[in-house]
Amino acid sequence: MSRLALLPLFFLFFLHGCDAQSQPLPHSEKLSAEKVEAIAQRINDRYPDLSGKLRKQILATVVRSLDNMVFIEGGEFEMGDFGTLCQYDPANMGTWPYGQEPERLCPITPERHDDYLHQVRLSSYYLSRYQTRLEDFDLFRTSLGLALFDADLREREDLQELFHPDKPAWTESWQEAKDYCLWVRELSSYPVDLPSEAQWEYAARNRGQYVQYPTDTGSLDYGRNIPADKITDELPIAQFAATPLGLYDMAGNATDWVNDWYAENYYQVSPLENPKGPNMGTQKVRRGSNYQETMWMSANTVRRWNDDLNRSRHLPGTSFRCSLQSDTPL
User: Fold this and answer.
1) Residue 257 near residue 181, CB atoms below 8 Å
2) CA 262 – CA 280 distance, rounded (Å)
3) Where in the chain are the domains?
4) pTM for this model (two decimals)
5) For the segment 133-161, what is each residue's pLDDT rounded down to a tens digit?
6) CATH for 68-324?
7) Helix locations, the chain, DSSP H
């Protein structure tokens, strides 16, 4: 074959190889065009065998993940169950300590190993405005060469809403949540990770205020700032009013995995500065509440869930949001 005949083939190969680089970069609210381009290059290097379409989707997901990060100014607060009125109206909580002496208040969550109040001082950090979407979690699994979970069920017309792409990601294990955040970390070159338990509570309480419910008002307004108790399934993210810090779904739809190992007595030995939980354990911590619970009882800012690392399958109601472990602007 002549050199002239080979030129068209070479040209087509060149175009295919440059496909990802020739695609327009997504706009970012926080990142410069140069930073977005660097992320795109890391994705191309990491996934040379994926299609240009998939790499473009991954790029958009990583950039959006960083754009969704809310800066949380650090500070000191009293972590744990700070108490509530023994009889109260969840729709009209008022201001703590509600005209009472704090020691006369009743526990918010009895028998949840959160009663030991202790001082915590946190550095500034970022927390995702939203829980991770099912669509983004699916893309993460696809990038690893894993099949979509419940792929056969997703084909059923009557179950389409169950697997809505904007619902919180379903997890089968804590490790999946951890790995997703580390995936964003690897591709973005930013210190993305699961938040610590202290970071989650500090943010849910509007930088450590004595707020019982993580809503825009600190009270429950069913259908406006939290799902109604009659809801029987997860809802797409951000259907209700955000907290004063701009965080959505801190309770009521799905719980959030956090980084910490669980120990009953950890609050009694927790260090003051940036506690990260025990060094080891057999269970991890979840925070928040999910759609299966009675909101006035469970959707508070202080309750701790201890849960096994693995479950039998992917299930709704247990999700996660990533954090950015940095006190400097993006």
Assistant:
1) no
2) 8
3) 68-324
4) 0.92
5) 999 999 999 999 999 999 999 999 999 99
6) 3.90.1580.10
7) 3-17, 19-22, 33-46, 52-67, 134-143, 151-154, 174-188, 197-204, 266-269, 295-298
